[in-house]
Amino acid sequence: MHMREFQQLMKQLYLHRDEKRGIKGTYNWLVDEVQELGEALETNNQEAVMNECADVIAWLSSLSNVIGIDLERATLRKYNGKCPKCQFSPCKCEF
Ligand SMILES: [Zn+2]
After folding, report:
1. Domain residue limits at 46
2. What's the number of domains the chain is made of?
3. What is the pLDDT of residue 53?
4. Measured in angstroms, how far is the CA atom of residue 72 from the centroid of ligand 1?
5. Which whole-number Å values give the CA distances from 86 to 63, 66, 73, 76, 77, in the listed order?
6. How far is the CA of 74 from the centre of ligand 1 (A)?
7. Were 61 and a residue from 7, 8, 21, 26 both cysteine, which residue would form a disulfide, CB within 3.0 to 4.6 Å?
8. What's the pLDDT band for 70 if we cut at 50, 70, 90?
9. Is there a domain that residue 9 lies in?
10. Ligand 1 center from residue 9 Cα (angstroms)
11. For the domain that residue 24 is a member of, what is the CATH number?
12. Residue 81 C-alpha to ligand 1 middle, in angstroms?
């Protein structure tokens, strides 16, 4: 499944709810899910981490739907096979 197909799935499942919640409300959910991912990472529970990674992508997709961003296009535009800063793959930026 491509990122665009996943975003389309999130649109099909949740757009009617995401639009009611609005940009700020959907953004706040994304932030909550990132926070939960951080908490899961501290538990060392791989199952919980997987679930939270899925939630982060799902909520980022929902937010992108509400604001009309094609997430696949946006990410490939910036990360098109090389580091956007140093232009190398793998990245050679100073650590
Ligand atoms: Zn780099």
Report:
1. 3-78
2. 1
3. 98
4. 20
5. 29, 32, 21, 16, 15
6. 18
7. 7
8. very high
9. yes
10. 32
11. 1.10.287.1080
12. 11
**Angstrom distance (rounded) from CA 16 to CA 11:** 8
Confidence of residue 84 (pLDDT cuts 50, 70, 90): very high
Tell me if 55 is assigned to some domain: yes
CB-side neighbour CA atoms (13 Å) of 49? 7
Q: How far is ligand 1, taken at its centre, from the CA of residue 76, in Å?
A: 16
Instruction: Please give the distance, rounded to the nearest whole angstrom, from the Cα atom of residue 12 to the centre of ligand 1.
Output: 36
Residue 85 inside a domain? The answer is no
Q: Is residue 91 part of a domain?
A: no
Ligand 1 centroid to Cα of residue 24, in Å, is 32
Residues 5-26: b if buried by 16+ CB within 10 A, e if exposed: eebbebbeebeeebeebeeeeb
Q: For residue range 6-51, list pLDDT tens digits in order.
A: 999 999 999 999 999 999 999 999 999 999 999 999 998 999 999 9
**83 CA → ligand 1 middle, Å:** 5
